[in-house]
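Retro notes, structure queue

What went well: the backlog is down to a handful. What didn't: a couple of records were mislabeled last round, so from now on we paste the full input next to the output in the thread. Example, using TonB-dependent receptor from Qipengyuania spongiae:
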Amino acid sequence: MAQDVANQPGDAVADGDAAEDGVIVVTARRREESLVEVPIAVTAYSGEALRQAGSIDITDIAQTTPNTTLEASRGTNSTLSAFIRGVGQQDPVSGFEQGVGIYLDDVYLNRPQAAVLDIYDVERIEVLRGPQGTLYGRNTIGGAVKYVTRNLPEEFSLTARATYGTYNQLDGVVTVSAPVSDMIRVGGAVARLTRDGFGENLTTGLDNYDKDIWGGRATLEIGGYSEPVLIRITGDYTKDDSNPRGGHRLIPGLRSGAPVLDDVFDTRGGLNDPEQEVEAYGLAMNVSAELTDAITLRSSSAWRKDDTFTPIDFDALPAVDLDVPGAYFNEQISQEFQVLYDSGPLSGLLGFYYLDAQADTLFDTRIFTTVPGLTAFTNAAVDTETYAIFADFTYDLSDRLSLSLGGRYTWDERQADILRQSYLGGGSPFFGGAGIPFGAPSTNFDGSAEFEKFTPRASISFMPTPEHNFYASYSKGFKGGGFDPRGVGANAPDLDGDGVRSDAEVADFLSFEPEEVDSYEVGYKGDLLNGNLFVAAAGFYADYTNVQIPGSVACTVAGLPSFCGIVSNAGKAEFYGLELEANARLGRDLMAAGDRLTLAGSAGYISAEYKEYVTNIGGVPTDVADFREVQNTPEFTGSATLGYSTPVGDGDLDFTATVSYRSKVFQFEIPNPYLDQDGFALFDANLVYSAPGDRFSIGVHGRNLFDKEYRTSGYTFVATDPVTGAIPLGANGFPIPTLGPEGTLTAFYGNPRQVFVTGTVRF
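Corresponding output:
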């Protein structure tokens, strides 16, 4: 897999193509620079490199990006959980902002639903590590992942790609573009992506972990190339009709005695209503106008919408022990303006950003085996309106020394309307249930909160020669607070003792505070050995406060067993680590004419530790930091890619082999020996033949060739020690269930071995 280093198979670039002299040009700071010049930790993957590696979706790049986790969220196929340098957000329900920003053609995706983007028609994918916000878009506290589609060529172009592989994988992508006139071009891509399941749902008969996706993009471009103005209008559509992803039980059914299944991709969950369906679409218009040689104006306007229906069977058994039919409805509009300046020793930008987003989450929590027909229905509508001004400028103090200063002022307003109603006799009417309302709503909350913050950034860069760059930077990250959409207002403490829970007491109980991070980084980038070795190294330290940690636990509501949302603001966490990325061209003097041997590698180390984590235990605030872990953040990540290219006839044959490693991962803050994944390695290999002029290519790709079995996420509702988090065992030798008598301890797994052949034809 390619990284942000030069001269490796399918040269990875952060913006477009490498220059003729082999120097890669990037625009991570919104201006063209060589990769060595950029004082930012950024990894980038070109579309060509992703094609050579047989990459399937955006989560694949995490294998070779230091200190980065990208994965499908638990019982979903297309909701993304993203973590960079220990900062992220695992909970996909409305009310919780992402810690890592996901961008599609410079448009920030406000919600993680439909964000597991399939790789087709892609120009590049960039991963920026550390707080972002002074250069573009939404402020993000952990980093950003940018998915950029291709600009249209000036000439007619038609590309067709077909793939067939194990598990009856059958994909087809057609991309076409054509000039309408000297100034206007139109184009688009259509993708059909299918695969049988890795396992089976033994109750419903449906394939488990299958894929059934239609996708398409259309583009209209006016101007550009030699013209000073480029208008790019794009639309995209995705329809995912894949089956629900069922979890694998790690313990027997504690009431039914149902045994643990042999195949981790098999499941027994009986919930299939509503049928799983994900539909996402959007429109965007990006305008760039070069007013003078020094000043450029840019505008990005976008509207997006996605609807998701998903049945999540937590207990993974036929009985309704803990079943959660859910729906997510998201819509957003955004507008961004930038003024870019580049003249003499001063360059930079001034920008404005606005986002208006609505996120509605609705779900039943059905525990019929506990109390027949008992359901807790939640309808949480959380609206976000945010706007910001930002600036970032660099001044060259000399030919070798430059100083960058930036800042952002952000205003966030969160409006929450949360209803929670219990039903008896069946599920809620919204999900087609026959339940009858029981008692008054346990949450009936309507409130708002405002958050604002100035977040600065500064860096200094010293380049003793054009091939070497030493830099140091500081940036502050910020993420606004909000309201827990699963919180139970009826359980709010009566602080004034008047016997009534006031609106203010409920608001205080449901709310959580903003989180902040102070991030420091030192780094080096260099082209060594006459361009045969590229090295990028960074060391970082982050002081992270008020960390937002959402979750849910078993509880009692109006005398009935149920579940309650809980959100902790862990007082303080400390992260520090190292990252190294390198690429070398090996043995050039020993290779035959036209042959090329390359070795690319990445390594990441992070020490992520809570310093203060206060929780309420028996009415007493208790610091449990010594017994909590940072989720989805392995201490060590690493990869190595060996590439060999040789002429075959008039074409080229390219072979790459990648091994990637991740050390132990904790799925939640409380360690869980059943769900946590020990360190493991994956091995991929690719063999691709490209005809002269790249007219056609055919490749054989193998992913996870040693068929490693590894957990990526899970659900748990079993008893734990409130301080240490230890899991006590009952008389039967298994964990004690806290919600549902069968016990919920289910896991989801990464893809097994896949082998597929891809053929591409270009006209």
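Agreed that this is the format going forward. Reviewer comment attached to the example: The chain has one domain: 25-762.
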